[in-house]
Structure to design on (434 residues):
């Protein structure tokens, strides 16, 4: 017959860790080879079975029912805490008729000292710190999120396992801070890869780089990864993608890291959460909605937008943090907390496919920039449909000088339909390895 297990707030982490390891082994033996944990990673190939990548779910994939099982772990009486429970200590009281008695007063002062010591000890238990460190999460204070609160809580707690904090330094002087995501791990070499924003090593001149598409990057900057167990480890830059503004760092790790699942399926208006970590490694959460929009002249055409709640405060230094959906899957990587833009997972998916196959991330060049008609105001779309019978396609915003598009007669203001786009791809594809 199973017995309840008592977990004390002041129990040593090592003791809890040993018991947790035993329980996890029991669960592993009881699950099938296709356990829920297997869904979070994908092995690279038969030649390197020890290398695991984060999973990307393609746009055409249909979300099915969640797979998983329920496991009952029966714990024996020996699994209980080794030290017996301390007797409860109540606030002492001395009757008035004994107040003048020296023996009674001495006993009262001793009991009072024990009571204060016990009260101090209990106040500093990890199970009691929520009384002193009040949460400021939107899930606690925003009643509008009540319909999705439980779903969002589980999604966030799942996703935070892969979110870390990174710091960069130039000659031991702080440069920037960003968040990052574990992206790949090699269990044989005991290494892992962290995906983060390129702003981690970008020259810290906000007023200048906001209006530039390229910037100065300190590739030799010292980078430190702050692990969730409050230890730190150095990171080694292995790839920098300046156009999409993200970087990949290799880290030496002693134990496996949690890899996230990326989701390419996103739609405008869906509920998402933007995650970051502060200097204490506490998670920061902001609720918002996804938005497609026409970028300004200072923004990249691949940007997607995070529309935060008006009551939410901006997260500072959270570039590189993930945007997650209500299933805890990553739909994008924050790359500009000032304009609240991010790189969608669909682009990250394509970039990493190229990187694994060719060890670089080539980028297609058409020599044009576009504005989708579907992102215009409905009044403009209706007017265009009524007068010109056009309700879809891409409006050409810019044409590069001496590009193939310019040579075949495409000009600013033209409408590019799907057929024209396909023919343009076939006529000329200019590749540039960024």
């Amino acid at each position: 017959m199973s017995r309840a297990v008592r977990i004390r707030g002041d129990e040593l982490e090592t003791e809890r860790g040993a018991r947790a390891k035993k329980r996890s082994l029991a669960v592993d033996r009881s699950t099938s080879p296709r356990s829920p944990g297997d869904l979070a990673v994908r092995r690279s190939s038969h030649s390197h079975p020890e290398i695991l990548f984060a999973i990307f779910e393609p746009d055409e994939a249909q979300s099915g029912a969640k797979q998983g099982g329920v496991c009952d772990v029966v714990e024996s009486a020996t699994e209980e805490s080794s030290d017996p429970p301390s007797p409860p200590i109540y606030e002492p009281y001395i009757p008035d008729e004994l107040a003048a008695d020296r023996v009674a007063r001495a006993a009262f002062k001793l009991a009072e000292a024990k009571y204060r010591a016990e009260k101090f000890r209990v106040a500093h238990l990890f199970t009691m710190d929520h009384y002193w460190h009040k949460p400021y999460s939107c899930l606690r204070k925003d009643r509008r999120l009540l319909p999705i609160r439980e779903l969002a809580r589980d999604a966030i707690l799942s996703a935070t396992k892969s979110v870390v904090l990174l710091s960069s330094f130039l000659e031991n002087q702080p440069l920037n801070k960003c968040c990052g995501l574990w992206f790949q791990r090699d269990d044989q070499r005991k290494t892992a890869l962290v995906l983060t924003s390129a702003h981690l090593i970008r020259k810290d001149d906000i007023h200048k780089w906001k209006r530039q598409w390229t910037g100065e990057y300190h590739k030799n900057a010292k980078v430190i990864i702050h692990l969730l167990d409050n230890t730190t480890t150095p990171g080694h830059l292995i790839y920098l993608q300046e156009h999409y503004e993200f970087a990949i760092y290799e880290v030496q790790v002693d134990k496996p890291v949690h890899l996230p699942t990326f989701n390419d399926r996103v739609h405008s208006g869906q509920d998402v959460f933007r995650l970051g970590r502060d200097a204490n490694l506490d998670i920061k959460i902001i609720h918002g909605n996804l938005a497609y929009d026409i970028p300004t002249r200072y923004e990249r055409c691949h940007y997607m937008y995070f529309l935060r709640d008006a009551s939410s405060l901006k997260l500072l230094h959270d570039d590189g943090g993930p945007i997650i959906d209500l299933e805890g899957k990553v739909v994008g990587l924050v790359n500009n907390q000032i304009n609240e833009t991010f790189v969608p997972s669909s682009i990250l998916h394509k970039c990493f496919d190229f990187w694994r196959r060719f060890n670089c991330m080539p980028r297609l060049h058409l020599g044009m920039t576009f504005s989708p008609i579907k992102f215009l105001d409905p009044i403009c779309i209706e007017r265009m449909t009524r007068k010109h019978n056009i309700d879809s396609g891409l409006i050409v915003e810019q044409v590069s000088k001496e590009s193939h598009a310019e040579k075949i007669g495409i000009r600013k203001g033209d409408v590019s339909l799907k057929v024209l786009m396909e023919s343009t791809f076939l006529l000329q594809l200019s590749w540039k390895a960024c």
Summary: The CA atoms of residues 201 and 218 lie 5 Å apart. The two ends are 63 Å apart (CA to CA). The chain has three domains: 39-61+145-360, 86-134, 362-433.
